[in-house]
Specification:
By secondary structure, the chain is an alpha+beta fold. The chain contains 3 helices and 16 strands. The chain has a 5-stranded antiparallel beta sheet with strand order 8-7-10-14-13, with no helix packed on it.
Amino acid sequence: MDRRQSIKAVARSTAMGGTFQAALRPVDVLTMDDIAERWASYSGQPLGMAKSHIVGFESFVLDQLAKGYRLDFGLVSFYPRLSGGLTSRDADPEADGLFVRGAVKARRALVNGLKRRLVAENAQATSRLRIYSVFDRETGRYGTVTPGHALTISGNDIIIDPARDDEGVWLEKRRHDSSRCHSYIKVSCGRILKSDSTVAEVVFDEAVPKGTYLLTLYTRCGRGTDFKVIHCRSEVKVK
C-alpha cells in the first residue's frame, strides 16, 4: 500500500497545561532546477526546453501583474495589492510608505486537492493513537452502537489493558461548561473482548438513552505504568 505524503506538525506548549500550538513545516523544498527536472520528466519535454518554459512563465506573470492584471490559473491566482495605509485624505502614498506587493491566493480546487492527498502529523507526539472506524458486527453498520452488540474498533496504537482502571473504552457526552470550554462525562464503560495495536473488540452491556455520543478510547499503548494515559474520540450514534 502506498503511503500518503504528510506534512509534519510540531506541538509545543508555553506553560504546564497551557495551550498547544501546531506548526507546519515543508516536507521538502524544490529548487528551480529540481522543478525543471520533474516537469521535464512529467511532460516528456527535454530538460532545457522545460526550464526555458518555466523561466518564460515567470517573466509572463511578472509582466501581466505589472500591468495591473489578476491572473487566475484555476489552482492559484496571482494579483498585485497594496500594503500600508494613508495618514490623511490628501497624503502622498509614497511618502506614507504605501507600496505595491505581489500576492498569491489558493483556489478551492487546490485546497480540496491537498486535503485529500496530504495529512498533518505531530512529529513529537508520544503516540499516534487514532480510531479509524467503529463497526457493529451484528447490524453491519459503521458509526453506530447497540447495547449488547459486539463492536469492532479499527485504529492505530489502540492496545488496552483492561486490568487498569484508567484504560478502556467509554461512551461519553460533551458538556459545555462555557462558550469557550467544555468537558466530557463518562456515561457507559465497555467490556473489552479483544485488543491489539490495530483492532479492539468491545461490548456495551449497559443500556443508555438513544442519541449521539463520543466513543472514547483511553490507553497507555503498552509503554509502561509511568506513561500518561492518552485518548482519542470518535462520534457514534446509539440506536
